[in-house]
Amino acid sequence: MLSDDQLMRYSRQLLLPQFDVAGQEAVAAARVLIIGAGGLGCPVALYLAGAGVGELLVVDPDEVDSSNLHRQVAYRERDVGQPKAEALAATLRALNNDIVVTPYVRAADGDWLAATLPGVALVLDCCDNFATRSAVNAACHAAAVPLVSGAAIRLEGQLVAFDFRDPATPCYACLYGDGDGPDTLCSESGILGPVVGTVGTLQALMALRLLTGHKVDGVLHLFDGATLQWRQMALRKDPACPVCHRPTRLTPDGGKH
Ligand SMILES: [Zn+2]
């Protein structure tokens, strides 16, 4: 049941028939995990907090650096040297005191993900390295939690959503494998702020669509910031995928294999 203040606060999205009161109540009841509080995680978190997503968990091991400020739009000069997860949480609480924000200043490894995912409605992968991306993909697949994944480098961006509640959905490893590939880093290759902001903004849009019961398309969206062109690639489940090709079975001791 929405209060008068909430009806006023969220009125512009409540006006949308695709969102409505039912959508507002759905996002208010949702716990969402954001992996990475950088150029993708900042717009994701700001839009989801603004929309009234009830509980946001933010995990990032790093501190704000002055070289982050051109693209990580939640931070100000005073935040340099502060843990990103905590600085972002403070900004989100100032934006929306109605919601619960929990920062984690640490890396999102497999054990932490497995312990954290129960009760999470959706994960947004906003990280900057392949090892974390692989761990997040495997953990979300194992826990059947939908994943919206984004990446950006130079003038290029991409995003894709996997709804792991559907066993037929492909996964990130179907696309890129799960090995230890070399990372392409913004610190070496460069990035323009609006490119990563574009991808993060659309991750937030996909998240709101998923949280309000809409289907996602299972398509890889590729953005070229030089031409403003988008390309779409249909994804197929890889029958040899090391993560999702086997059905998850429970053994008699309760462990998953
Ligand atoms: Zn797969």
From TrEMBL:
Known Pfam families for this protein? ThiF
Q: Where is the THIF-type NAD/FAD binding fold domain?
A: 10-243
| Source domain of life | Bacteria
The protein's matches in Gene3D superfamilies, at most eight in alphabetical order, are given as: NAD(P)-binding Rossmann-like Domain
> How is this protein annotated for GO cellular component?
cytosol
CDD domains on file: ThiF_MoeB_HesA_family (cd00757)
In the record, what terms sit under GO molecular function? Answer: nucleotidyltransferase activity; sulfotransferase activity; thiosulfate-cyanide sulfurtransferase activity; ubiquitin-like modifier activating enzyme activity
Similarity field? Belongs to the HesA/MoeB/ThiF family.
This protein is called Molybdopterin synthase sulfurylase MoeB
| Source species of the chain | Isoalcanivorax pacificus W11-5
